[in-house]
Every structure is written in structure tokens, then in C-alpha cells.
Design brief:
Elements: E1 8-14, H1 27-34, E2 38-44, E3 57-58, E4 68-69, H2 71-82, E5 95-104, H3 107-113, E6 118-123, E7 128-129, H4 131-136, E8 140-143, H5 153-164, H6 176-179, E9 197-198, E10 201-202, H7 212-230, H8 232-235, H9 242-249
Parallel strand pairs: 1-2, 1-6, 4-7, 5-6, 5-8
Antiparallel strand pairs: 3-4, 9-10
């Protein structure tokens, strides 16, 4: 899929803005922000609570363990930052709730999110969020896997990191995204670098041959084999070419 935006803005709504201080300053994401390819607004939901104690959670109706994130501060935060009202209909950008109940994050979903120049991420917390947030505010719900975390901050960072890689100029090599694991439905092939020999382990001869056709064939074969061994479910989702079948058969 082609990348459709040249810069991107994230609005993150959280009860713990300090969770983003370090990750947004380092590595590829930090450099992208410094270069103006990526911008991030981290908004403290507590700042939009109406009471003096800035309470954002309450007991669930009907009883049960845990607390529930109240609707009022979340709605007011999103509407204020996005300069929009839920009563107006569609928001100016996707509003994504981080929740284990959402659709699972995949590389295809990442590339879909990367088509929007702006994304709003709502970090859930406590036992969950008031259902009215799901029904009348967010436009999507995303999970990073079938497990439960203490909050949505880490999932939001994962989405930000994964999506930002699709912005042109963020990565040093523009082809890297297209060659990543899962980009073509397969796990990526092995990588080697110098030295040629480390202890008793050497770089495969084909990678040192200079024959780009053979290198491409080897890499495709290794990608197919790794996928077959580690994620056979992925092979069931793609159409193998006749050459792919030959490459697999040659190793079985």
C-alpha cells in the first residue's frame, strides 16, 4: 500500500501524560518529531474534569470490581482539542480507543491508519470506559493482542511507532517498510552484517556472491520457510506462486 501523507499529527488522551515523555524523545520517533515529519499532542484527561479534584473515574452501575473511566472528561477533552462536537457527526479525524476488545493490530491495519494525516488515540484505564465513549465518541477500537494491560498508554505508543514508520522520510531507507515482516504477508528473511565469520558462524555464501537474482531468490525462500515454521497460519492467507512452491519443496 502506498503511503499517502507527508506528515502526521497524533493527539493522545491519557490520565498519565508522563508515560510519553521518554519514548517521544528518543530514536526514530524523536528524530521524526525534531524534523517536523511527526507531531504529537499529549493531553491530560484530568485537565478536562469539571470538579476541583479532577476525578475521572467512578464505580460501575450494577456493581462489580474496579472503576470505570467517566464519559464527561473524555468527551470534553476530545471535543476541545479537535474543535468539534459529537453532536456534529463525524469527527475531523479517526478517534481510536485502546482496548482489548478492539480489532487486533496488524501491519495491514497500520498501513490503513497511516493514510490519515491526523489520529486521536484514547488510552483506556481502570476496569474500562463508560460505554457511551464507545458508542458516541470513538470511531474505532484497537487491541495489540489477547491480553490485558494496566492502561492504554503502551498500546498507544505501539500504534504511534508502527504508523510513523510509514511517513516518508522517517526511515533512512524508504523501502524498509515494504520489506518488513508481515508487509507482504510473510515473516522477513534473515539478516547478516560484518564480520563474515564470527566464532564458527559464517555469513551464507549466496549473500556474498554479488548475484542479486540469487540473493533475492534466497531471501524469498528463507522468508517462506520461516513463515511455514513459525507462522503457518500466514501461509494460508496468501496465494503462493508456482515459484514459491518450488522454493518450499526444495527444502522439504
Amino acid at each position: 500500500m502506498n503511503r499517502c501523507v507527508t506528515a502526521m499529527h497524533f493527539d493522545i488522551f491519557t490520565l498519565f501524560p508522563e508515560a510519553f515523555d521518554g519514548p517521544l524523545r528518543c530514536s526514530i520517533v524523536g528524530r521524526a518529531i525534531d524534523r517536523g515529519l511527526l507531531s504529537v499532542g499529549v493531553h491530560n484527561i484530568r485537565d478536562y474534569a469539571s470538579d476541583r479534584h479532577r476525578v475521572c473515574d467512578d464505580y460501575p452501575y450494577g456493581g462489580g470490581a474496579g472503576m470505570v473511566l467517566k464519559p464527561e472528561p473524555v468527551f470534553v477533552a476530545a471535543e476541545s482539542v479537535l474543535n468539534w462536537s459529537a453532536a456534529d457527526g463525524e469527527p475531523p479525524c479517526p478517534i481510536v480507543l485502546m482496548t482489548p476488545q478492539g480489532r487486533t493490530l496488524t501491519q495491514n491495519l497500520v498501513s490503513e491508519l497511516a493514510e490519515s494525516p491526523r489520529l486521536a488515540l484514547v488510552c483506556g484505564h481502570y476496569e474500562g470506559v463508560d460505554e457511551r465513549i464507545r458508542e458516541h465518541l470513538v470511531t474505532d477500537e484497537i487491541s495489540i493482542g489477547d491480553y490485558v494491560l494496566t492502561g492504554g498508554e503502551l498500546p498507544a505508543l505501539i500504534i504511534l511507532d508502527a504508523v510513523s514508520r510509514w511517513i516518508p522520510g522517517v526511515l533512512g531507507d524508504e523501502d524498509s517498510v515494504q520489506e518488513d515482516s508481515f508487509a507482504n504477508g510473510l515473516i522477513e528473511h534473515p539478516h547478516y552484517t560484518r564480520p563474515v565469520a564470527y566464532r564458527d558462524w559464517t555469513v551464507p555464501e549466496v549473500l556474498r556472491s554479488g548475484d542479486h537474482g540469487e540473493i533475492a531468490r534466497w531471501r524469498r525462500q528463507q522468508s517462506l520457510l520461516r513463515t511455514q515454521q513459525r507462522r503457518p497460519d500466514l501461509l494460508e492467507r496468501i496465494s503462493l506462486t508456482r515459484e514459491d512452491t518450488k522454493l518450499l519443496d526444495a527444502q522439504t
